[in-house]
Prior knowledge:
Elements: H1 2-8, E1 10-16, E2 21-23, E3 27-29, E4 35-39, H2 47-59, E5 67-72, H3 76-83, E6 88-94, E7 102-103, E8 116-120, H4 131-141, E9 142-149, H5 170-177, H6 190-196, E10 200-205, H7 212-217, E11 225-230
Parallel strand pairs: 5-6, 5-8, 6-7, 8-9
Antiparallel strand pairs: 1-2, 3-4, 9-11, 10-11
Amino acid sequence: MRPFIAFFLRGNRYTDPIDGKSYRRFLPYGYARVRENVLAPGTLSLERHRLFWLYLKNETTFFSAPLRVLHFAPEQAFLSKFRKQKNLSYTTTDLNSPIADVKADICELPFKDESFDFIICNHVLEHIPDHTKAMQELYRVLAPQGTAILQVPYDPNLSKTFEDNTITDQRERTRIFGQYDHLRVYGMDYFDKLSSVGFDVKAVDYTAGMDSKDIDLYRLCKGELLPVCKKQKAILK
């Protein structure tokens, strides 16, 4: 149905920068809280996907430099486009997804130290019980001077990450955590947590330098922070 919906909603009010197509409106999306006009009909991208794409396109060498890329739980909005990039040695991984190249547990990755120049891991860590171990593994397989972008859903008004495993009712977990299968609500200490495993972390507000008209055109979430992580040193043997 996706091509028919995209055709029906075609227009020039909003643009998805991932495929460059424009629509008169986007679709609603959400679990605990439905957000209107956020899901692009063509790529099915959300605000976070479009923000990530714009940052990659405009602020990195992702589309030009020869890079070894590891992509966790590859999003459909990106998968085919990244596979076509001739400059990338592109590997996807997931524990369960049938479309991933390598079936792997993020806490025990089957890759050698410093194997990748760029890591994409978006909206994965909130599902992982031992997220510290997962972060350590991400740091381990990232090459020195490499970049990892590790988006998670977070609450900017929450200073400390909240977890409560005693809440078992799926409706209640959806209400509190955003989805029933999310294990925590990240607070602003998420960036410190990434730093604690070795990353040099920048919380990048990419919308801060954008015109308000472009933020609306691309249907971005104003003020959303991108966790851009660098690895400055090699792992000591």
